[in-house]
Amino acid sequence: MGVIATIKHFIANEQEAYRMDIPPHGLMKALSSNLDDRTLHELYGWPFADGIRAGVGAVMTAYNDVNGSASSQNSKMMNGILKDEMGFQGLIMSDWLAQIGGVSSALAGLDMAMPGDGSVPLFGVTYWGYELSTAVLNGTVPLERLNDMVTRIVATWYQLGQDDPSFPKPNFSANTADASGPCYPGALFSPTCVVNEYVNVQGNHATVAREVAREAITVLKNDNKTLPLSSKSVLKIFGTDAQKNPDGINSCNQRSCNKGTLGMGWGSGTANYPYMDDPITAIKLKAANSTYYNTDSFPSGIIAMPTDIAIVFISSDSGENQYTVEMNNGDRSSDGLRAWHKGDDLVKAAAAKYSTVIVVVHTVGPILVESWVDLPSVKAVVFAHLPGQEAGNSLTDILFGDYSPSGHLPYSIPKTESDYPASVSLMGFQFFQVQDTFSEGLYIDYRYLNKLAIPPRYAFGHGLSYTTFSKTSATVTAGKAMTSVPPARRPKGSAPTYSKAIPLPAEVAWPTGFDKIWRYLYPYLDNPQDISSKKAFTYPIGYQTTPQPDPVAGGDQGGNPALVSIFCRYSIIFQEHVCE
Known about the structure:
This protein is an alpha/beta fold. Helices cover 20% and strands 12% of the residues. Helix 8 (279-286) links the parallel strand 10 and strand 11.
């Protein structure tokens, strides 16, 4: 209760490079992700359908075009897929400054423009606000579309309990960590007031964060039952990734560096760490005989004893393309699928010195391990992914056997990057607009590898456990026969009704005595009575003004419920754990 969760970015936002207009809404448009209907539904739409089924309150559109139409004004995606097929009842918002038109985005199904500005922020101009008031008064945008926007926003506000008098008001600022600051940060001149109250809302977050990080940890290799470790083990730990950033865990703006333990990628979707439980601290609490070498270059002069165990930490990062980190502009454009900071060389150097090496990987996605994974000394490989604030305790829970690992790879790890389809490569510059055509269709990751009989190094879903398993004969029982289309959706409930009459212009006049803040956006008009036309809205050719038959794929929030069970049965065949 309380937080309106948002899933993003709808849809086919699969690379950072060229994803935005350059300059905004200028000479070069954001790239167009071009994909067929089946690929849209069976691959890229499923995570959003699952989120809607879980009750998410908002969906954010992407910067990129989809099949040549901007995401923020793509009627097929918003009206057709999200609101009709997936039955989404919440609000659709734009990404920041991704809205590129007013009337066009309103008719296409956008409900909220973020942050509200037009193509350039803080100029006091907007595609909506007072322009939306004008469009409704002159009949350019139908009143029922405005009512739908408002209903979706306010209904979500009610659904999450934010109408409760005890629901807290905003008590923090995204503009400063100081206790006081500008009351109106968008204004050129502003009085100062308290903007951060430093309310601790963590509750049991640490426990949940540790559980989430621990359950994701994936053991890929464990020869000779090297894991779990004993608290009496003599450990030699290498790699700067084992220790939190010495400059401060939040020293890099929006985590735009890969220094110290990699707990999350970088960009505007990140959060400040309330603390960082780093691996080296947690390991030393478990095994007193631990020595740490805080370097990504293997030290000279080390004498390795036969009973020593080396743990090597390596990483691979990515993030949002407004930052370039170590020559990687959002995507892993410089390092590709290799470990950063010459991590492969660090592993090989440790493997040449020690008879037992454990490699721990913090990574945003697959990395190539071929240069060292088969070395005789490399006995165990652990992918800890992006563990967040509980990076240390979650890892030692697995390394020392307090819990059995239960993670499974959410992707395949190939033997070489060329084993992936060509579409994995970044789309480069093209005049006017980059065309990113998903020519591989459904054949991504393991589907592509299976189709071409390419063996991966580690398959999608791979993950070892400390538990031993046995199996007996399986029994298969026929279920309900499938039909060509799923059952019809349940009858709809009644919808709120509103007046269809265009409001009087006086409703959007400036209230008497209103204290306007310069550069802030308002719905009010200086001379609303001068709006020349009050004709009813005329829908463009092709629009339907009467209710149409429901799409067979619809039926509930997230789509027709029958499709979920069908997909579960289908997925079990391919060992995809997408349903319970």
